[in-house]
Amino acid sequence: MAKMIDFDKIRAEFPILDQQVHGHPLVYLDSAATAQKPQCVIDAEAEFYRTINAGVHRGAHELAARATMAFEDGRAKVARLVGANAAEGEEELVVTAGATAGLNLLATAFGNASLGRGGQAAKRFALQPGDEIVVSRAEHHSVLLPFQELAYRTGATFKWLDLTEDGRVRTDNLDEVITERTKVVAVTHVGNTTGAITDIAPIIARAHAVGALFILDACQSVPHLKVDFHALDVDFAAFSAHKMYGPTGVGFLYGKRELLEALPPANFGGSMVELAYMDQEAQYMAPPARFEAGTQPVAQVVAAGVAAEWMMNIGLDAIEEHERGIAAELLKLGDIDGIRILGPRENVNRIGTVAFDVAGVHPHDVGQYIDAQGIAIRVGHHCAQPIHRHFGLYASNRASSGVYNTVEDAQALVEAAKGIRKFFGA
Fold first, then answer.
1. What is the pTM of this model?
2. Which residues form the Aminotransferase class V domain (predicted)?
3. Which residue in 52, 169, 332, 369 is a FRET match for 286, CA 20 to 30 A apart?
């Protein structure tokens, strides 16, 4: 059982929540877009700039050494959060500008391998006509588009796992979709629209059975669930710091060490090259440096490490249990006449992300009505148009919880939602 945590005290650590919007206390239910930051994370970033700001891995002076140590300590803390602990010198976590950047890095690197770059070791990532790339209809555009473009560039066939009626990724026909020709499978861990937790174990098993690489979009799982990439046996995974209470502008790409060592680089410049010449091919550094060209978001990585440590101190089990209570209240939106929930109605194998449609009222009008009462939710297609088409819609409204939310926050949204259709005369 999860340990008892004072979540009211935790909420008080978020200074942004201590304000009013349109004359109402702020209720922030848009954590799936970006989570708010506790004071310790805000302080960590500012403290770095005040005390040890310097370039990392490139200076012999004291500030550079201290900055490098802080940067690598931040990486190590995040690695512990997601079960990516590795032996010293064998890191499995690459710093990126975000999950989108990490997924594009992979797609670009696979494309480079398809052109013959990276030598013999990189051939395992190469794609050609007749090979297959598989995603799901539930994917965020940051998964869908990079691998769709990779298919275009290499001539590979682009396929997808379809959805159940309530928006879960189907696993009953894996043998039909993931075949001996499949080389890459990329699937979301938690749907950013439905909040549904994907049953990824059989998908991973099937992918590995046919020799395919499995890539996990962990953006919506790392902030809300206890995640262990080693235990899951994923080959690669991408997630963003700003959704796990850390800063914007930084994310992480996990890769099994042996795969990172074989993967050719995707971005080029300073800090990722061992030897550069005018008249012969460059020799690139070992990972993760090979994939970290240019100046890194050092202060943000330091602060992301603080966020990871802060989450671990609370306990991921406690966070999941707390947010399950929020989800139960948000799901009551579906009890309101004229409101349909997009995704599972049962509070089982899902997180506190609930998208809904209000009959006869445009999502943007819903969002403005809700905002006028001090409640922040997301409106639009949430960068996931195919799953909206699955539900016969182009856009929806989405409420998504974080560790700082209360049952009362969810109840405030439900009460506000009861007046939407009457207000608009729907």
1. 0.96
2. 27-413
3. 52
Phi, psi of 185, deg, nearest 5: -125, 125
Mutual orientation of helices 99-114 and 141-154 as an angle, nearest 10°?
A: 10
Among 283, 312, 341, the domain boundary falls at 312
- Any residues with CB less than 8 A from the CB of 278 and at least 6 apart, and which? none
Range of the domain at 372: 7-30+315-419
Name every residue whose Cβ is closer than 8 Å to that of residue 103 and which is 6 or more positions away in sequence. 142, 143, 146, 147, 186, 215, 217, 238, 253
Residue 219 contacts by C-beta under 8 Å, 6 or more apart in sequence? 99, 140, 188, 192, 238, 239, 240, 243
Instruction: Give residue 89's pLDDT.
Output: 64
Token representation of residue 173: 């026909």
How many Å apart are CA 126 and CA 111, to the nearest integer? 7
Task: Estimate the crossing angle of helix 298-314 against helix 39-51, to 10 degrees.
Answer: 150
Same domain, 12 and 137: no
Distance of alpha carbon 286 from alpha carbon 269, whole angstroms: 14
Are 363 and 278 contained in the same domain? no
> How many C-beta neighbours within 10 Å does residue 6 have?
8
The Cα 248–Cα 110 span in angstroms is: 26
Catalytic annotation present for 219: no
**Residue bearing tokens 């979709």:** 177
The answer to whether 402 and 30 have CB atoms below 8 angstroms apart is: no
- Burial label, 97 (beta-carbon count in 10 A; 0-12, 13-18, 19+): middle
Below-50 pLDDT ranges, the chain: 1-2
DSSP track, 49-65: HHHT---SSS--SHHHH
Contact indicator for 96, 106 with CB cutoff of 8 Å = no
Phi-psi region of 370 (alpha: psi -120 to 50; beta: other; left: phi over 0): alpha
Q: CATH number, domain at 322?
A: 3.90.1150.10
User: Does residue 223 share a domain with residue 75?
Assistant: yes
Catalytic residue among 383, 385, 386, 406: 383
Backbone angles phi, psi at 63, to 5 degrees: -60, -40
Beta strands in 83-138 (DSSP E): 93-96, 132-136
Q: What digits encode the pLDDT tens for the residues 315-329?
A: 999 999 999 999 999
Report the candidate in 223, 186, 217 with the shortest Cα–Cα distance to residue 32: 223
The per-residue pLDDT for 2 is 47
Helix (H) or strand (E) holding 178: none
